[in-house]
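Entry 0007
Protein: C3/C5 convertase
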Amino acid sequence: MGFSVCWSMWAALLLCPLYMGVSVLCEVFCDEENMSMEGGHYTLTKKLVYGSMLIYHCPEGYYPNPASTRLCQKSGTWSPPPHIRRPQKCKMIECPNPLVLESGTVSPLQMQYFVNNKTTYECYSGYTLCGSSSRVCQPNGKWSGGTPICRHDSGGENRCADPGIPAGARRSGSSFGIDDKVTYRCDEGLNLVGSKERVCQESGQWTGTEPKCYYKHTYDTALEVTEAFGSAIRESLQLAAPIDYTDQEGKKITVDKAGKLNIYIAMDISDSIEEDQFNKARNAVKKLITKVSSFAVSPNYEIIFFASDVLEVVNIIDFSGEKRKTLEQVLDDLDNFNYGDRENVGTNLNLAFKTILERMAIQKQRNETLFKEVHHVLIFFTDGAYNMGGRPEDTVAKIRETVYMNTKEERDQYLDIYVFGVGSEIFDEDIQPLVTKRDNEDHYFKLKDGAKLEETFDKIIDESKVVGLCGLHRNYDHDTADTIRVRYPWMARIGITHEDESYGKCMGSLVTPRFILTAAHCFKFTDTADKIKIKIGKNQVLTGSRLILHPNFNIKAKEKEGINEFYDYDVALIELKNDVDISIDTRPICIPCTKETSGALRLVGEEITCKQQEELLLKKIILKKSVSCHMIRTGKVVRISGAMPNLSSRIRGKIVLAWLLRDNVACKGDSGGALFKNYDDYRTIQVGLISWGTKNLCPDGNNDVKQESDDDSRDFHINLFKVVPFLKKYLGDDTRDYAPLQFLDK
Ligand SMILES: *[C@@H]1O[C@H](CO)[C@@H](O)[C@H](O)[C@H]1NC(C)=O
Ligand SMILES: *[C@@H]1O[C@H](CO)[C@@H](O)[C@H](O)[C@H]1NC(C)=O
Ligand SMILES: *[C@@H]1O[C@H](CO)[C@@H](O)[C@H](O)[C@H]1NC(C)=O
Ligand SMILES: *[C@@H]1O[C@H](CO)[C@@H](O)[C@H](O)[C@H]1NC(C)=O
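Output (C-alpha cells):
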C-alpha cells in the first residue's frame, strides 16, 4: 500500500531507517492506486503527503460509502483503509423509515425510501392528522414537512398532545399526562439529534425539542439552519438590544446594554477542513458578526481558531475598560489572521472550551457584579472528529457552573452553546451533550460543508422581526430586478399627473412607513397629493394624501440676480394615505440627525449630536446615488470651490452639498433620488437628494443607456443635514396618527 520516496532512492535508503518517523527527512507518500470511486470522484487536501485528506464527492442524491474521507497517515497508509470487499461507491441517499405512524396508514409501502420518493399519510377514523399529509424524501436525507401524527379526537385525559414518532425512531411511553415521560431511540445506523427524553409539563408543552434520526449522510439545509439558528440568536440579541422606555415624567430613556453580551466564536481549522474551506469559514464568521451588529448591539467578542492547539484571534479581555475594540478592528483581526502552513493534524475541542472557560473566569474574577449581567453565547464550528485533549463534557460542565452560579433555574437564559457540525465525520452523539438544551430551540446543526455558511448567516435576519430598523438591506454583489429591490428597499418611483394632464416622473425614498422624501421641483404649484402615485417594493402602489414642499423653495428666488432657476431647499415630503407594508423589499432608509441613525452608526449614548453623525458620514467622500437609469452610481464628491465660474453664482446658496465630478450623471426623472452611504454593509443612510444637473446626457426616452459625463456635466444634491428642521417638523411630529422619527436634540 503505502511507500515512501526514500525507499525508492539509493541515497535516501541509507538514511531512512535511522530517521524513521521524522517526516522531513523521510517524506512519506500515500498511494493513489485503487482509490477511485464508482459514480463519483475525490479531491486531496495536500496531495499525497502525510496529513492530507482524501475527500469523496458524489452527485446530488448520492453519498460516498463506506467512507466519506480518508486521512494519509505517517506510515503512508490511508485511514480508514480501503476495503477490498466493499468497494468505494456513491450510494443513493435514503430517508429514515416513515412506517412509524400510529393509528394511521402510510403509502406506498417500501423497504427503502430514496430521494424524490413521496409518501402520503392517512389516519383511522376518530383520529385527526396533524403535521404533513404528504412528504417527499429530500437530497439531504430528511423528509419534507413535519412529522405526521394521528391525534385522538377526544384528546382524553392527557395534558400534552401526542408528540408523535419521527421517521426512523421508536418511542416508549404512551400516556401524556403531567410528568409523564416519553423516550426515543433511533433505528440502527441512525443517530438521534434533539431530545432523547421529553416530559409533559403542566403548561401542556413537552420539554426539549423533537428528536430526529440522522444518518451519517443526513445534514441540515441552509434554510433549516437559517430558521432555527436565526430565531434562537435573535432572542439573545433582543435581550442585549438597547431598550427605550418612558419614565413617570414622560421622559424617554434609552437603556444601552453595550457590553452585556459576550459572543465566543471557536472555529475548527484542523486538517480535516481544507484551506479554501477555512477562508469560507472565516468569511462566514465575518458575515455573522456584521449581521449581529445590525441589531444595534455591541457585543464583546472572543474569536479563536483551534486544531491541536488554540490560536486566539480576538481576545475578549480587550473589550473591557475604556478602549473597547470596534467592529472594524475585529474584522481587521480576522482578515489579518494567516492560516499559514500549519501541521494541525489533531482536533482539540476540549482545549477550545478550556480557553473560553479561562476567559470567563478572568472576567468573573475582575467584576462579578458585571459578569452576572452578561449574556454568554458560544458558537462552535467543528468537524467533530476530536481526537485529542480529552472529552470536552467536563469543561462544558464547568462553563455552565461558572455562568449559572448554582442557580440554573434563574440564570438559564444567560448561556447559549451552539455547535455547527461540518462534514460527515461528525459524531452527533458526542456533540449532543455539549449544546444548550432549551424547549423548542435547536442548538446543534449539521452542515454538509462550510460553503453555505456565509449565505446562511446572511439570511439570519428575519425582516418581519426587525421592522423598526431603518436602512437595513440585503447585500448582493450583482443587480437583477429582484436583488435591486432587496438591496435598495427604500427606493420609490413617483408619478404625477399635472393639472394639464401632462405626466411627470421622479424618484424618492421611503423615510418612514408613511413618508416619501423627494425633490420639490418635481411638482407644479397646482399639483395635488391625490394625483401622486408611488410605486415601491415588488408591487405596492400608493397614493399621496399630503404634499409638503420646503417653505423656502422658490425656483424664481434669484431671477433678479440673473439666475433663472434657483434650486436651494429643493426638498418635499409626500405623506401617504396609509403606512406601507414593511417587508424585505420595502423598508425605510435612515436619514440624518435621528436616533435611529445613531443606532445604525452604532453611536450610543444620550450625548450624540447631529454634528457627530455628519462627521462620520461625510468623512469618506465616496457616496452613491440612486438613479432610474442605472439604479446606483458611485461618485466622488468634490466640494464646491468655484472651479466652474459660470456656475458659481447659481450654487452660491449654502444648501448645495457637492457635485459629482466626471461621473455618470443622473438623467431627467432621477430628481428626488437618494444620495446615500452604506455603513457596515447592512445599513443605508441617505445624506443627500438629487436636485439638478447641468446637462441632460441621457437620450430622450431611454434612460437606461449609460452616458459618460463630460467636463461640464455636474449633478447637484441637496444636503439633508441643512434641511433637518423641515424634516423634523413633519417626520418628528408626535401628535399625528403615524409613528414619528426620534430626532436628536442638537
Ligand atoms: C489494486 O487493485 C488490484 C486489483 O484488485 C491489486 O492487484 C493491486 O495490488 C492493488 N494495488 C494496491 C497498491 O493496493
Ligand atoms: C423511489 O426512488 C427510486 C430511486 O430514485 C426509484 O427507482 C423508485 O421508482 C422510486 N419509487 C417510487 C414509488 O417513486
Ligand atoms: C463592576 O460592575 C458594576 C456593574 O457594571 C459597576 O457598577 C461597578 O462599578 C464595577 N466594579 C468595579 C470594581 O469595577
Ligand atoms: C461655462 O464655462 C465654460 C468654460 O469654463 C464655457 O465653455 C461655457 O460656454 C460656459 N457656459 C456658459 C453657459 O456660459
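Curator remark: The radius of gyration is 31 Å. The first strand starts at residue 3 and ends at 4.
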